[in-house]
Amino acid sequence: MYSKIAALAALVAFAEARFGQEGLVQNQISALGNFGNPGQAATLAGASPGVLLGGANACAKLELADQIVAELGNDPEVIAAAAALVAAEKNFNNFAASIPTICSDPNLPATPELRGIVPLVDPGVVGSDIENANSASSLTNPFNADGLSQADVAIANGFSNFTAQASDGSTADVGAGGNAGGNAGGNAGDNAGNNGNNGNGNNVDNGNANNGNNGNVN
Ligand SMILES: *[C@@H]1O[C@H](CO)[C@@H](O)[C@H](O)[C@H]1NC(C)=O
């Protein structure tokens, strides 16, 4: 019995340590008091923990990030705080799911400076090493996000162990192995095709056929 309580206490401490990340984003937003009208930054900061909760829509934090820039302007300090929210880890309920959700709305975030940034995910999720490295680098070097949702950008850069969620709340399985292989194969095929068209090589047709097949098999 005692060991069960001790184990539970350790779990709670771990959860609280991870929950602290949300506080960091909140502090960064509330520090924007010099921008916008008095109280605006504090109100936006107060809304930030709610959009990172397990039950929140995965697109809600992107909407809030857009709202931060819409209300406080696009000073680099404001952009940095809004970008931190875009990159922040959204919790998921470990009892209900084992993988995170990422927004699949290609129109979010709308702010150009916030596009191409992918989110951190729980380090317990398979593939999180890739995704968390991508998230860190995307804050300084955003990925290509032309016409792509945050979910699309994550997949295009090697992480697909998540559930995609649209703004209306509907979800779709991304299907870790399958789609990643298919997309990677498809992209490789497209690139090879484009390269072939740019060059004057004799083997353009062979190249397309082979790459396409590889993509499908994967
Ligand atoms: C996704 O991550 C979960 C852990 O959260 C793991 O149980 C599962 O096997 C992973 N799925 C794939 C396809 O890697």
From TrEMBL:
Residue segments, region Disordered: 187-218
Keyword line: Signal
Recorded superkingdom: Eukaryota
Organism: Corynascus novoguineensis
Region forming the signal peptide: 1-17
Identification of the protein by name: Circumsporozoite protein
Stretches with biased composition (Low complexity): 189-218
